[in-house]
Prior knowledge:
Layout: E1 4-5, H1 9-18, E2 22-23, E3 35-45, E4 50-60, E5 63-69, E6 75-76, E7 80-83, E8 88-91, E9 93-98, H2 107-119, E10 122-127, H3 133-142, E11 150-153, H4 169-179, E12 184-186, H5 192-204, E13 209-211, H6 219-224, E14 229-231, H7 265-277, E15 280-282, H8 285-292, H9 297-302, H10 312-329, H11 332-351, H12 371-382, H13 387-394, H14 396-401, E16 419-422, H15 432-435, E17 437-442, E18 445-448, H16 449-466
Parallel strand pairs: 2-7, 3-7, 3-8, 9-10, 10-11, 12-13, 13-14, 14-15
Antiparallel strand pairs: 1-6, 3-4, 4-5, 8-16, 16-17, 17-18
Amino acid sequence: MTRLMRTGLAGRLGVAAFLGIALAVGSPVPASDRAVVFGEVAIVDTRDGQVLEGQTVVVVDGMIDQAAATDEVEIPADAKVIDGSGHYLMPGLAEMHGHLPFAGPDEALVGDLLFLYVANGVTLVRGMQGHEEQLRVRQAIDDGQLLGPRLVLGSPAMGWGNTPEVDEAPGLIEEFAGVGFDLVKIGEGPDPETFEALRQAAEAHGLPLAGHVPDEVGLEAAMAAGMVTIDHLDNYVEELVPEDQRADIAPLWGVASVANQAQLQRLDDLVELTARYGTAQVPTMVLWETFFGGEKPGKIRRDTPEARYVPTEMVDNWEASLASLRETIGHPAGARQVVTLRRLAFQRLHQAGVPFLLGTDSPQLFSVPGFSTHREMALWVALGMTPAEVIHAGTWAVAEHFDELDRAGSVAEGKRADLILTSANPLDDVGAIAEARAGVMVAGQWLPESAIRQRLDDMADSRRDSEQP
């Protein structure tokens, strides 16, 4: 058994420093090291929105081995000690609607995009644009061969051009379950009969349904069917419009043509319905405001400095795609009304106690992995959530959603060592998670902010150098 030192923290840190194993916040620690200690740190309680001062956290083999008041903690003699005084430790954040890359011709790009999540403290991503290659990426992360967030993988979307026939649904879902997808992504397109076939097949294999609400199915039937999340506030604006006035609109984008006919009193019923079912929302507010907002694509590009971390070709495509989408949407006044109604729905659902889960639909259309999470959190605060509520939605509520509060969602013994260290209290300002971050730990691997910034700088330099004529 490893010898434990049982003196006070000051003594322990002094001994560690004398032995040459104490670390500044800026020293990297690989996951292979046996123990990492965050000493005299304040733990952010993500359940109740409180701060626990004077705590020490011991990480062993990628898990939190101890988290308690400093004088109650036993520090292994060979531990790497990070001085947490004046700092705040919280669990990593989740991206609950990611369009994950997969290992194709440019595996370096896949690694870079995954790093952008980790660099921003996003240590779990629920992939909602499934591809079988993502299964291999997940395995590489789990095996420690690739640095990235923990992945929860949705299937290829059941919608759009990939909507199965009713009799194909059971075999398709069986295949998804067999290869290891964690949920069935629902897209636009399935009619009620197809949706029910997908539901039954998914239930038989223990896979939840999540994603869009097909227009022909509608919110009530989707929630009654047990969809575990509704993403993008899908159909909330559409169903404010009388059915006969929205019968022929195109999915997703056609709503701008009828938004000015919305009847706000209908929102009461939708909110009550959602609260009754308790269906979690992943609203992806910022991206949808990019879609329907009036800001010109070129200006959005200029106002997204983090776009320098992804290839210029990708950003060019985002700009062109957004310009094209704006033409498809049309109806500028109606599009502005969509933004207004979505914000109102967000606020009313939150006031009614409907659970929210943090997600941004990255990476696409200026939603840069990780960075988009901080933009989303800031908007949620602007719309009336407290910082504690936003952090709860990205941590504790996500673990509760996945039924894994015993091993995630807070900084506590027995939980995964996916952590964010900040030098300011994120419960006062969620911006501290980005602006006062001292480092990130993912699966027990400590990445100080200096190392994160260096790799980000290298990524930006590499993009610039490779794209010069």
